[in-house]
Design a protein that fits this description.
The protein is of the alpha/beta class. The protein folds into three domains: 3-176, no CATH class; 180-320 and 382-415, Translation initiation factor eif-2b, domain 2 (Rossmann fold), CATH 3.40.50.10470; 331-370, no CATH class. 44% of the residues lie in helices and 14% in strands. The chain is built from 14 helices and 14 strands. The chain has helices at residues 3-10, 13-37, 39-45, 60-74, 80-99, 134-153, 157-176, 178-186, 203-215, 232-242, 255-259, 284-293, 348-356, 407-415, and strands spanning 103-109, 120-126, 195-199, 221-225, 247-250, 264-267, 271-272, 278-281, 298-301, 333-334, 369-370, 384-387, 394-397, 400-402. The strands form four sheets. Strands 5-4-3-6-9-13-14 form a seven-stranded mixed beta sheet, with helices on both faces. Helix 10 links the parallel strand 4 and strand 5 (247-250). Helix 2 (13-37) crosses helix 3 and helix 8 crosses helix 9. The two termini are 34 Å apart.
Length: 416
């Protein structure tokens, strides 16, 4: 796609609608992160009875569904076939936008004064940075099937259009509440005194564990894999710690080492595929293999609108994943680099790099630095991987607790 086509696509009204919902979502998340960083001041400003979990943002597929509802409202088509064509075109535009990582410019509180309404900075967040577009695609596809089914039930076009809008709003609201329903069905699997392992950052997993701790008053520990390269796990650990849940961050590469000391593992999903496997943040596949080898149950928490009619047999079968988190933007840090006075065995090149980042007043502290690679070294940075069904114990969904073999039946019901 050339630059002119890309600009035309990003000017599409459906992209404006999508960004409108997601920018509100991003602002809510930023406010929550500011609250996590300043828990005392946030607690003083918090209205009575409010919950930190209310930061819950609108999920990406639900934002897409709301954007498609506006397409129906704006459509000049006078037949269901024309309306379906408008929705298909809008869906294709959103998915293509998402594959590129879709920059969303919005204003958020200044980090220096996060509680001030007048202290804001313009920031750019990315729609699918480091993620798969599968959830966006499946949400749009599910809504399109929903419209087709409604058209068969109500032949009159205007009546059908009104019915689709009414049902669509209910569907979007139902989908928004999916996380709460998943938390209800999944939290009983968190036992008193257990050690829970998670990977990356999943809003659904956070909702489930927070419910187990704050509503059901269970005491347990959370081991969080760091979630390179976006530190998603570290961000989740801060959320758990602020809720009073003992949390420990573990290097991704140490998942095998730590697996021996946990009672269960739970992850989210970018997509649940037809054979019962899941697509999720890279590293989930390795986590599943290790969990099965050591007899640790692996649970997946995922909304039903992430069920997709893909049937990958291995990671090579996954669709191409776009976004802005390619290898060119990935940096490697030596986070255990000692200052120059403590590196007698280091190369002159490494010493120079470390000296540049060393505090003149410190002679023995740690100073991370970027490892520069020659152009001949290529970097691969896949955002997600595929975990086959045989490594998954159960799925926690808004449709209930499912076995992996039940996923295909639910997909048939959803898309029929």
């Amino acid at each position: 796609m050339d630059q002119e086509q890309q600009q035309q696509q990003e000017q599409h009204p459906v992209i404006s609608d999508l960004c409108f919902h997601l920018s509100k979502c991003s602002s809510a998340v930023f406010a929550a992160e500011a609250e996590a960083a300043h828990p005392l001041s946030a607690e003083n400003d918090k209205p009575s009875g409010s919950s930190s979990n209310k930061r819950a943002s609108i999920p990406l597929p639900v934002a897409a569904i709301r954007a498609l509802l506006n397409v129906i409202r704006r459509s000049q088509s006078e037949t269901m076939m024309g309306l379906q064509a408008d929705l298909r075109d809008a869906s294709d535009v959103m998915v293509a936008f998402g594959k590129r990582g879709g920059p969303i410019l919005h204003h958020s509180p200044s980090s220096e004064s996060p509680s001030s309404e007048h202290s804001t900075i313009a920031t750019t967040r990315y729609l699918l940075a480091g993620r798969s577009h599968i959830a966006l695609s499946s949400g749009c596809e599910l809504f399109l099937k929903y419209v087709i089914r409604a058209s068969l039930e109500t032949p009159n076009f205007q009546q059908c259009k009104s019915e689709v809008l009414e049902r669509g709003e209910r569907f979007a609201e139902f989908s928004t509440q999916a996380r709460d329903r998943i938390a209800v069905v999944g939290s009983p699997f968190i036992r008193e005194g257990s050690v829970v392992l998670t990977h990356g950052r999943s809003k659904v997993v956070e909702a489930l564990l927070l419910r187990a701790a704050l509503v059901e008053k269970k005491r347990f520990r959370v081991m969080v894999l760091e979630g390179r390269p976006d530190a998603g796990g570290a961000k989740s650990a801060r959320t758990y710690a602020n809720a009073g849940i003992p949390a420990t961050v573990v290097l991704d590469s140490a998942m095998g080492y730590i697996m021996e000391s946990v009672d269960l593992a739970i992850v989210g999903a970018e997509g649940v595929v037809e054979n019962g496997g899941v697509v999720n943040k890279v590293g989930t596949f390795a986590l599943g293999v290790m969990a099965k080898e050591l007899g640790v149950p692996l649970y997946v928490a995922a909304e039903s609108y992430k069920f997709t009619r893909l049937y990958p047999l291995n990671n090579a079968d996954l669709p191409e994943m776009g976004g802005v988190m390619g290898g060119a933007s990935l940096k490697f840090l030596d986070t255990l680099a000692w200052s120059a006075n403590s590196t007698s065995n280091a190369s002159e090149e490494d010493k120079s790099a470390r000296i540049a980042t060393t505090d003149a007043n410190s002679s023995s502290s740690l100073h991370p630095y970027v490892v520069d690679l020659p152009p001949s070294v290529s970097i691969e940075n896949p955002p997600c991987d595929f975990t086959p069904a045989k490594y998954i114990t159960l799925l926690f969904t808004d449709l209930g607790v499912l076995t992996t073999s039940a996923v295909s039946d639910e997909l048939i019901r959803l898309y029929q």
